[in-house]
Structures are given as C-alpha cells and as structure tokens.
Design brief:
- The chain is an alpha+beta fold.
- It has 2 domains: 196 residues, no CATH class; 150 residues, Oxidoreductase, molybdopterin-binding domain (Sulfite Oxidase, Chain A, domain 2), CATH 3.90.420.
- Strand 7 and strand 8 form a beta hairpin.
- It is elongated and about 80 Å long.
- It binds ligand MTE and molybdenum atom (MO).
- Molybdenum atom binds next to loops.
- This is Molybdopterin-dependent oxidoreductase.
- Pfam families: Oxidored_molyb.
- InterPro entries: Di-haem_cyt_TM, Mopterin_OxRdtase_euk, OxRdtase_Mopterin-bd_dom, OxRdtase_Mopterin-bd_sf.
Length: 387
C-alpha cells in the first residue's frame, strides 16, 4: 500500500526568496536556514586563521627537522618547539568541528545548477574542490598519524608537507575570491531573526571541547582531561611517555657498552658508563616534545655534549651526528648543529627525574637538547661522530 509520500526534510522546493540564504538557481531549497552566507563567512574566517596557523607551525616543524644549510635554528627558548608543535596538532584537531560545520553549511552548493556558468566559474569551483579535498586529507592523515595507524601507502611526513602547499595556495585564491562577499555579509547587521549565533557558538564550543580534551597531552595540569590523547605527560616509565620501547627498537642492555667520540677529532674518546659518571654532570629541566603534539617536561642529568666535544678537540663549527645502538628505524641517528651543541643545556643524559634512565628512555645514555623535536632526541646513544 502506498502511503503519503513525505517530502524530504532536507530538500524543499519553494519560490520564496529570502536574503542571505544559499539559493540555487533551479529553485531547489534546503530546509535549514543555516545554509547561510553569513554562517559560511564566519566559519570561513575561523578556518582561515586555523589553517594559516597550522601551515606556519607545520613549516617550523619541517624546517627544524630538515634545516636547509643556511638556516641556523636557535636552541632557545627551550620550549619553543613544544609550543609551536602543540599548537599545530591541538589546533589542527580543534579545526575538525569547524571544517565539518563549514562543509555542512555550504554543501547545497554541490547541487548548483547549472554546475558551471562560465570558464571562470568552472575554475573557481574546481579550486574549491581542491581546497576541500586537501583540507580533509590533511586532517585525516594527521589524525591517523597520531594514532600510528598508517592506513595509507605513502610516507606521512612528505605527503602532509607537500599537500600543505596545495592547501594554502587554494586557500589564498579562495580568500581573494570570496573577500568582498565575506566583508559584505560580516559587516552588515542581519535583518532576519535567524539564530546563527547559537549555531556558531555550538560549533565553537565543539572546537573548544576538542582542544580542551587534548591540550592535557602537552600541559600537565590538564593531563586528566586529555581524553583524546593517546600519550600523556606523567604516564610512562619514570613519569615520561614512551613512543618506542627498547623492545620495539630491538635494543637490549649491553654490559660492554661504551660511548665513543669519533670522526674529525684531535683524539678519539671512549667512555664506560662509570667513566661518564665520573665527569662533571649537569642537570636541566627540558621537555620531550614529539611531532605528534604531546610533550612532557622532565629533569635530566648527564654530561654536556660540548664538554665531550671540547675534550676530543672538535672544531667549533663541526656538525655532529649522534648514533644509536638501534640498528634500523628512521630515528636511529640525528644531527646536532653547532648552535645546539654549544648550548650548555644540551646533554648526553644518564639520569631522568633523579634516577638512571629506564631502558625504554634510552639507557645507558640519550641525547636531550633544548628546543628540538622529539624525533631528534636520540635514545641508546653509542657514538658521537664529528663531521
Ligand atoms: N633511537 C631512537 N631514539 C628515539 C626514537 C626512536 O625511535 N629511536 N624516538 C624518538 C621520538 S619520536 C621521540 S618523541 C622521543 C621521545 O620518545 P620516547 O618517549 O619513546 O622516549 O625519542 C626519540 N628518540
Ligand atoms: Mo616523536
């Protein structure tokens, strides 16, 4: 039996004209009046700010990890990378509700008729598709990366990096195209009684909730709230999170371990753990700040890298390669620039929070330096090579 066919809630046909509302030339209407230029404009402004922040902090992270020759990255402030990368990841996550709300607000435009009015209009629409695609791609791959879920067949860092240029390029053109419209809609007071503010506040609150339940991964006082963060300060051996355990890295404690200083030096050096402990040791309060956004401050004790390099007679401008006992893996070596190894806070740490390093934290010896991405704080160090 055929009952009354209910009209679709989403699509409604009407000839009414209401100002501001997204309207399709075919006369197709969308029932929620929040598919609205004003809402779209505000969400667009917020998203523009969020994506620009993510782009800038992302570039900082990229160039800190792969500095071009001319770039001397500073070793201070100690917490700089912790802040920029926290902003990148936590800000990026908080963008998700904005992005979803924006897509929902403007999706009726997908059904625009005719789909293309002119060459210019066609190009404009194509650009919007690029923008939407790149945005979704960045957010999705970023989230998967934090979860170590490499569901994609490409290397995350490289793809995420290059896609960001496509995204920011498309964003700049989009802003240029929409600027006058956005100005017009945002500056003019609305005439209708539509409750946009409620909708925008809800979206803003959702964003804030994501940020608040993640920021604890970088800001210890809020650690209890970090429901969305896979790693948190305070959780892990010696109160510091571990990304890669000794077991996962295939590293076991080696009783015959020695630390060697080699390469372009006046004299090669070799130390047992006791030898190192007999040298003047320092203590420093420094964070581990992972590219995934989590970070944890800790007190490290150990020997200054610069003391060892001076003992070996290394050139002041030398670059240093730190080698781990770990055999494979992307992070078994790292580079230390002159500016970083001259910093008195750059240590080959033996102690963490007052105890000898746990094997998972790099026992017997790990590098810890100020303002440096976690991936460069090499664990299980066995050799310091002067280049
Ligand atoms: N040898 C080695 N050192 C390493 C890693 C690694 O995989 N191998 N991981 C790095 C990463 S990604 C981070 S964030 C820091 C801190 O990680 P942890 O908590 O596992 O010590 O150590 C770094 N040092
Ligand atoms: Mo990391």
């Amino acid at each position: 039996m055929v009952r009354h066919l209910k009209p679709l809630r989403v699509l409604r046909f009407s000839r009414l004209r209401l100002s501001g509302r997204l309207r399709l030339s075919s006369g197709l209407w969308f029932s929620s009046r929040l598919h609205d230029e004003r809402v779209a404009s505000w969400l667009g402004i917020w998203l523009g700010v969020a994506f620009t922040t993510a782009f800038v902090t992302g570039l900082i992270s990229h160039f800190m990890q792969q500095p071009p020759g001319w770039l001397m990255w500073p070793s201070r402030p100690v917490n700089l990378y912790r802040v920029t990368q926290g902003l990148h990841v936590i800000g990026g996550l908080a963008t998700i509700p904005l992005l979803l709300a924006k897509l929902w607000t403007v999706y009726p435009k997908l059904f625009q008729w005719p789909p293309v009015r002119s060459v210019g209009h066609g190009v404009e629409r194509a650009l919007v598709f690029v923008l939407v695609g790149a945005s979704l791609f960045q957010v999705v791959t970023g989230v998967l990366n934090i979860g170590y879920w490499y569901a994609f067949p490409f290397f995350f860092t490289t793809t995420h990096y290059w896609t960001s240029y496509i995204l920011i390029g498309a964003l700049i053109i989009h802003v240029a195209n929409e600027w006058t419209k956005v100005r017009r809609t945002v500056m003019r007071l609305p005439e209708d009684g539509l409750n946009r503010r409620g909708f925008l506040l809800t979206v803003g609150a959702a964003s804030g909730a994501v940020a608040l339940t993640t920021v604890g991964e970088a800001f210890s006082p809020l650690a209890k709230l970090a429901l969305l963060a896979p790693r948190r300060p305070g959780v892990g051996p010696q109160g510091v999170p571990v990304n890669k355990s000794a077991y996962a890295a295939g590293v076991t404690a080696d009783p015959a371990w020695r630390l060697r200083v080699t390469g372009r030096v006046q004299r090669e050096l070799s130390f047992s753990l006791d030898d190192l402990r007999a040298l003047p040791t320092r203590s420093a309060r420094l964070p581990i700040a992972c590219v995934e956004g989590w970070s944890a401050g800790a007190t490290w004790g150990g020997v200054r890298l610069r003391d060892l390099l001076h003992m070996a007679g290394a050139d002041d401008n030398a670059r240093i390669r730190i080698e781990s006992m770990e055999r494979g893996g992307l992070y078994r070596t790292s580079w230390v620039s002159p500016r970083h190894w001259h910093d008195p806070l750059t240590l080959l740490a033996l102690d963490l929070n007052g105890e000898p390093l746990n094997l998972d934290h790099g026992f017997p010896c790990r590098l810890i330096a100020p303002n440096r991405p976690g991936v460069h704080q090499t664990k299980w160090v066995r050799e310091v090579v002067v280049v």
